[in-house]
Amino acid sequence: MEISEQEKITAALNEKYEDQILRIETLYDFLTITVKSEKIIEVIQHLYKHPHTKFQFLTTMCAVHYPDLNQIAVVYQLHNLVSNNRLRLKIYLPAENPVTPTLTTVFPAANWMERETYDFYGVTFTGHPQLKRILNVEDMIIFPLRKEYPLEDQTREDKNDTMFGR
Q: Rounded to whole angstroms, how far apart are CA atoms 77 and 102?
């Protein structure tokens, strides 16, 4: 029986980091593995170098704010260009102090992605060569993509909600 690509990826990860895996799921045909945040860079380096995975391209890196959990997820999407496999890795950080190591040591292209994630979500990437805002003004005191602010002004009197079925 032939082993599937997802089983190969999971087996490669289990070789050294089985204790770091929190959840493995396939969402919309996309293998998603949630790992503990402490060794995320080591896990990615392992998947980069491993002969069965070779995830040597960082497609994207972003964050998601979960206010009900008081956490921020950092999501890394990796791609093996030879076998055309993709993998999503997730870590969860506390919303009051989201800190994780920089990925620029593995993927230099993570530089701007980490700056954008810092700019919009407030995630601090330790060891980053120049972690500062990239799109918002430098003296901004909030992180605008956190779900801490209402989408619209609830005190407006000039709108008619009946037009929107409310």
A: 15
**Joined tokens for residue 135:** 């799109």
What's the pTM?
0.88
44 and 78 in contact (C-beta within 8 Å)? Answer: yes
Instruction: State the CATH class of domain 20-145.
Output: alpha beta
Per-position b or e across 156-166, b if 16+ CB within 10 A of its CB: eeeeeeeeeee
Domain extents for the chain?
20-145
5 phi/psi in degrees, rounded to 5:
-60, -40
pLDDT digits 0-9 by tens, 67-99: 999 999 999 999 999 999 999 999 999 999 999
CA distance 36 to 3: 26
